[in-house]
Amino acid sequence: MEISKQIRLLIKKYSLYPSKRLGQSFLIDRSAIFYIRDAINPVNDRIYLEIGPGFLFITNSVAERAKKIIAIEKDKRFEPYYEDTRPENIEIVIQDALKVDFSQWDVEELFGNIPFNISSPLIVKIAKTKTINRAVLLFQKEFAKRLLAGPGNKDYGSITIFTDFFFKKQFLKTFPPHFFYPMPLVSSTLINFVRRTDIQSVNEDLLFRIVKGAFSKRRKTLFNTLKKDFDGDILKNAIIDAGLPIEIRGENLSLEEFIRVSENLY
Questions:
Q1: Is 198 helix (H, G, I), strand (E, B) or coil?
Q2: Is residue 16 over pLDDT 80?
Q3: How many Å apart are CA 140 and CA 155, to the nearest integer?
Q4: Given CA atoms 33, 38, 39, 43 in this order, what sign does their dihedral have?
Q5: Which terminus, N or C, of the chain has the lesser number of Cβ atoms within 10 Å?
Q6: pLDDT tens-place string over residues 3-13
Q7: Which 3 state secondary structure label does DSSP give 112?
Q8: What angle do CA 259, 255, 220 make, to 5 degrees?
Q9: Please, are residues 147 and 139 in contact by the beta-carbon 8 Å criterion?
Q10: Most distant CA pair in the chain: distance in Å?
Q11: Residue 237: helix, strand or coil by DSSP?
């Protein structure tokens, strides 16, 4: 039976009508589910963490090859469904993923189809959970563009720099709206995140303070956006000593250039 038909039957049987408030949109294309499973590349001696398992179609596919899946689902309405259908190597945690401590489990890899309304806080949470070394995540295309953009691009911003600092990011594939139910207005993009180990010790608070300030007024120069927070002469020298022109805008700096400026201000 097609997954779309299965989901419609399950929705009716368990009264699990998709919640707009939770941003629920379930992947119903079998080829996409297999593609995501293969991108995760699960192995039978490893435990994986999933955000938002929904009807378990991606979960079950990964669980066939993994030692165990710990799946975090916020929607308590799914509990009767999980009691009827959950395989033994899938542990369901009914909690809000934004409030759960991921480090409580011996898990290094995470995956999920992420609702748009929690995309930004969730990727920040994952980045700050140092025990998570890899994530394969499906985001709405517009948010994914912000993560993958380069300097000078209109989608480039503080979330780009933040995730660049913690991860090497790889675009994998974009799936069209009709691969989902209910069908969203936009496509979704799959991204592979691998935690970086190549950045030396940096004052993160200072770095991200500079980045946030730089993008608060994108059309102003970096110097003009930051001069209210730093001594003018010190800031000017920090920018010039980083090998940058004093008139450069923050939206044109790479992560490495932001790091150089922050080190000169530290």
A1: coil
A2: yes
A3: 14
A4: positive
A5: N
A6: 989 999 999 99
A7: strand
A8: 90
A9: yes
A10: 69
A11: helix
Report in angstroms the alpha-carbon separations of 154 from 147, 157, 158, 218, 252.
12, 8, 12, 10, 10
Domains and CATH numbers, the chain: 3-195 (3.40.50.150), 204-265 (1.10.8.100)
- What's the pLDDT tens digit per position in 44-67? 999 999 999 999 999 999 999 999
The pLDDT tens digits of the residues spanning 171-227 come to 999 999 999 999 999 999 999 999 999 987 899 999 999 999 999 998 899 999 999
Looking at residue 105, its amino acid is W
State the amino acid at position 119 in one-letter form. S
Question: CA-to-CA distance for 133 and 109, rounded, in angstroms?
Answer: 6
Q: Does residue 187 contact residue 141 with C-beta atoms inside 8 Å?
A: yes
CA distances from 124 to 120, 158, 201 (A): 6, 11, 19
- Tell me the pairing of strands 188-195 and 134-140: antiparallel
The pTM of the whole model exceeds 0.85: yes
User: What is the number of other CB atoms lying within 10 angstroms of the CB of residue 166?
Assistant: 21
Tally: H helices and E strands in the chain: 11, 9
